[in-house]
Amino acid sequence: TENAVANHNFLPHNGYATITQFIEATNSVVGMGPALGAFLAVYGAAIDGSGLAWSIGGTPTAAQAGLLPGGNGISGSHNKYEADASPTRPDLYEAGNDYKTVVAQFQQLIDASPGSVTMESLTSFRSQRFDTQIANNPYFFNGPFTGVVVQPAAYTFIYRFMANHSAEHPTGYLSYDVIKDWFGISGESGSYTAKQGWERIPSDWHKRPIEYPYDTDYYAADLVNAALLHPKFLNIGGNTGKVNTFTGVDVTDLTGGLYNAQILAQGNNAACFGYQFAAQAKPDVALGVLTQLDDALGKVSSKLSCSQLKSIDESQLMQFPGYARSPAA
Hints:
The protein has helices spanning 2-7, 19-30, 34-48, 62-65, 92-95, 103-111, 119-136, 146-162, 176-183, 216-229, 251-254, 261-264, 269-280, 287-304, 321-324, and strands spanning 16-18, 53-55, 141-142, 185-186, 193-194, 237-238, 247-248. The chain is mostly helical. The protein is globular.
């Protein structure tokens, strides 16, 4: 979505934008709610950017960043922002990149969505991708934030933000032609081609009504509904260096007893847990940025009525090479 928004100059065309620009663009173009937009923008800038701005690509050049240099961008944020088991992108250690559209995966998405793309078909396809990556990526990792919160967004956002809204389809209808435009895909099923970087907003496309923005409460509901269909989505852990070695961690031990596997699948708990884990991974940036991040998290937590997560035993995650490795490793 961000690539298409930048290609139409709702974000700077070079893909490097400030927190405010991300919040305003995601709200005005696709109807993302203010609390969700603020958290994602602030977190991206803190973890992957300068603290004030960040790139939807890789590390920005000095010319792109201007007075706001820093950060590796979203394509350099493996297991901090970018997650495994993407619908249309490869896992980082599977293909050497995590940002190029894989035509075969787009074809699989279409094959899993007879007639049109729906929330149900995307959830089913996510389950397929989840299993495929366990079987093919020795470093597959389903993390507390990247797996529990970011991975479902990669699927949910496709329908919630790309679907065409009309009087006939007030909740949205996502046709093959519309999703092809969003992903820069041409051709017909069975012979698709991807023109990398040519994602665009479809013509005669209408966003979700601005009166009903898609905010954290809607997203938390989508997240848990998918997990109720496929409980494995909430299994925190990963492969241990070989394929088909997925090992989970005990959520109770990980969270100091605040959550357990049963509680995590109830209400807003999974979303609360993921957001708070992300914010506890304090980036090495200025105090003012941390204040912004805490403020954004506070708004999310308040909207979702989250219990306060005081600490996380991150050491339990270090057994997974997909968590411990950096993109440069």
